[in-house]
Amino acid sequence: MATTNDLKNGMVLKLDGGQLWSVVEFQHVKPGKGGAFVRTKLKNVLSGKVVDKTFNAGTKVDTATVDRRGMQFSYKDGSDFVFMDMETYDQLHINPETVGEAANYLLEGQDCTVAIHEENPLFIELPAAVELTIEYTEPGVQGDRSTGGTKPARLETGYEIGVPLFITTGEKIKVDTRSGEYLGRVSS
């Protein structure tokens, strides 16, 4: 148990009959009149739904013990993703629903963090940016420059993003894992 005064970003709370909510942001508010309160933005760990919730200052909240383990994506087994714990070398099979959007950026051998609560994987955390190779994109036309439009490009993971017109098939680029945006070329 903790109080709302102990809240931190990334902390996982157990609310509404055992549902797990991750603290996205919080703000302590002390109005001129009345008691202080804490305004929070919470994200449901399983569904991804984000809600705003206000607590009175000092209210007790139930925190969930979430173990964040460094793991490496090994391979895909049917529809499951297989991760290897980098300390114990145990393998963990995780379903596609839990992996979610992270699947768009996962390559074999990729390091990531797996959040686990009571032996159940909750979600996968990737680095903010990953380097991936363009598997296919239409060739650029003479006169295409760095400013201007974008074109679709298929990454080596099979995911499609928009890239500038001058990018060609086979180039290695940096991609933001939170937004799926092109960040730039990777110099070899």
From TrEMBL:
A single GO BP: peptide biosynthetic process
A cellular component term, taken from the record's GO annotations: cytosol
Listed Pfam families: EFP, EFP_N, Elong-fact-P_C
Elongation factor P C-terminal domain boundaries: 130-185
Residues covered by the Translation elongation factor P/YeiP central domain: 68-122
Protein's UniProt keywords contain Protein biosynthesis: yes
GO molecular function per UniProt: translation elongation factor activity
CDD domains listed in its UniProt record: S1_EF-P_repeat_1, S1_EF-P_repeat_2
SUPFAM superfamilies for this protein: Nucleic acid-binding proteins, Translation proteins SH3-like domain
UniProt keyword Protein biosynthesis, yes or no: yes
Signal peptide: none
Annotated function: Involved in peptide bond synthesis. Stimulates efficient translation and peptide-bond synthesis on native or reconstituted 70S ribosomes in vitro. Probably functions indirectly by altering the affinity of the ribosome for aminoacyl-tRNA, thus increasing their reactivity as acceptors for peptidyl transferase.
UniProt-recorded name of the protein: Elongation factor P
Organism: Streptomyces calidiresistens
